[in-house]
Write a structure and sequence with these properties.
The chain is mainly α and 235 residues long. It starts with a helix and ends with a helix. Helices cover 80% and strands 0% of the residues. The chain contains eleven helices and no strands. It has two domains: 121 residues, Tetratricopeptide repeat domain (Serine Threonine Protein Phosphatase 5, Tetratricopeptide repeat), CATH 1.25.40.10; 101 residues, Serine Threonine Protein Phosphatase 5, Tetratricopeptide repeat (Alpha Horseshoe). α2 packs antiparallel against α3, α7 runs antiparallel to α8 and α7 runs parallel beside α9. The radius of gyration is 20 Å and the shape is elongated.
């Protein structure tokens, strides 16, 4: 029943019925708190879903409160090894990244990785998201070596568990390509950008938004590389 309400709320959101999605989740939470109690395990998923809706609306304070409640339920009422705990930690970490709270975000990403490792093992695709996101945070901080290691681990996990052409590989590959580009490793970057396009074309089709964005990333990269080359020649 819980997933049915979640799915309906997501459908409302995709259709642009933001208020209906929010009202539905608020109603389910209020009813659940009254009947089951404020820390019932089934409420954690609703807190997380409503928090993600608030993030998309820019309601960061409300989102943080709900993410923290969802995490607390996962840790206290369920188990530190609950399969959804890592995702909830990563979601709050992403909110902190958005707010510029890098230290708090790093701590939560590391907790998310540890939680997922305990539940799923060290080579499960569930780890790809927090590894990729923490790597991106490190790259933004100029910690290129740390970022590279995490991107490479996420890619290795995906290739082993999902195959070399799975769409989830596109995101860490794309981010690693940007890292190489920033480092001036142009050949390595271009190979990865091309691979991302190929993956998305095969798995999503040429007209999908992710495929188009990957093509735009390559075009922008080539433009920047040419611009850099022209500037060097003029010196």
């Amino acid at each position: 029943m819980g997933s049915a309400f979640d799915n309906l709320a997501r459908l409302y959101f995709k259709q642009g019925h933001i208020a209906k999605a929010e009202a539905l989740l608020q109603h389910v939470i209020a009813t659940g708190e009254t009947i089951l109690g404020p820390e019932h395990p089934s409420l954690g998923g609703y807190f997380s879903s409503l928090a993600q809706l608030y993030v998309k609306q820019g309601k960061d304070t409300e989102a943080e409160t709900l993410f923290l409640r969802a995490i607390a339920i996962g840790e206290r009422v369920l188990s530190p090894k609950h399969p959804q705990l890592g995702g909830r930690l990563a979601n709050l970490a992403q909110l902190y990244v958005k707010q510029g709270k890098d230290i708090e975000a790093e701590t939560l990403f590391l907790r998310a990785i540890n939680a997922d490792e305990q539940v799923f093992g060290q080579d499960d695709p569930e780890l790809m998201r927090p590894l990729n996101n923490l790597a991106h945070l490190y790259a933004e901080q100029g910690k290129d070596a740390d970022a590279k290691l995490l991107y490479e681990r996420a890619i290795a996990i995906g290739e082993k568990a999902l195959g070399p052409d799975h769409r989830r590989l596109g995101f860490p590959l794309n981010n690693l390509a940007f890292l190489y580009s920033e480092q001036g490793k142009y050949s390595e970057a271009e190979i990865l950008f091309q691979r991302v396009i190929s993956i998305f074309e095969k798995s999503l089709g040429p007209d999908h938004a992710d495929t188009i964005r990957a093509q735009e990333n390559l075009e922008h990269y080539l433009w920047q590389r040419q611009r850099s080359s022209n500037a060097s020649n003029e010196q």
